[in-house]
Structures are given as C-alpha cells and as structure tokens.
C-alpha cells in the first residue's frame, strides 16, 4: 500500500501526518516518542519503548496504574503525609 502525504510547514519545522491505520499497525499513539531510521531511500518509523516496557511491564498495566493514581491521588497524598 502506497499512500501520499504532503509536508506542511510549522514554524521552523515540517509536519507529516500519520494516518490512524498506520498508527494502529505500529502500536503508537499521540504523545508517544517515536524514532526514525533512514535506510537506502526509505524512512522507517520505529516505536520507542518506555523504560518500564523494556523491563517487561505491559502498556496496559502502566495505563491501569496511571488511572488508579489519578483516581486516588488525594487519598495517596494523605497517606504519604502521615
């Protein structure tokens, strides 16, 4: 599948949009760090793993912990202050 995109200017940078289907196929999301590698005349987009993912912690578990901390932040702070 070959799909075209147009580079757009934004300040001193250029922006190239990534279709949702490509993001899903790569398992990347908005706000996540990604790298690219130039090989021959092609660019390869690579999802960067977090330090926790490198240790074998799943993305789903990380999201669950973050949601729990957000939900119970007040109670956790009170416990920490005691």
Question: Would you kindly provide a written description of the structure presented here, covering whatever features stand out?
Answer:
The chain has helices at 20-26, 51-54, 59-71, 73-81; strands at 8-10, 13-15, 34-39, 42-47. The protein is of the alpha+beta class and 82 residues long. The strands form 2 sheets. It has a two-stranded antiparallel sheet with strand order 1-2. A two-stranded antiparallel ribbon has the order 3-4. A hairpin with a 2-residue loop joins strand 3 and strand 4 (42-47). The longest helix is centred in the C-terminal third of the chain and has 13 residues, at 59-71.
Which structural category fits the helices and strands? alpha+beta
Report helical residue fraction: 40-55%
SS field, number of helical segments: 4
How many angstroms separate the termini? Answer: 59 Å
Mean of pLDDT: 84
How would you sum up this structure in a few lines?
With 82 residues, the protein is of the alpha+beta class. It has helices at residues 20-26, 51-54, 59-71, 73-81, and strands at residues 8-10, 13-15, 34-39, 42-47.
């Amino acid at each position: 599948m070959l799909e075209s995109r147009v580079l757009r200017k934004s300040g001193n940078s250029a922006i190239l949009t990534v279709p949702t289907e490509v993001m899903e196929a790569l398992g990347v999301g908005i706000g996540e760090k990604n790298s690219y590698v130039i090989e021959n005349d092609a660019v390869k987009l690579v999802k960067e793993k977090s330090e926790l993912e490198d240790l074998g912690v799943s993305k789903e578990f990380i999201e669950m912990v973050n949601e729990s901390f957000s939900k119970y932040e007040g109670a956790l702070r009170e416990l920490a202050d005691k």
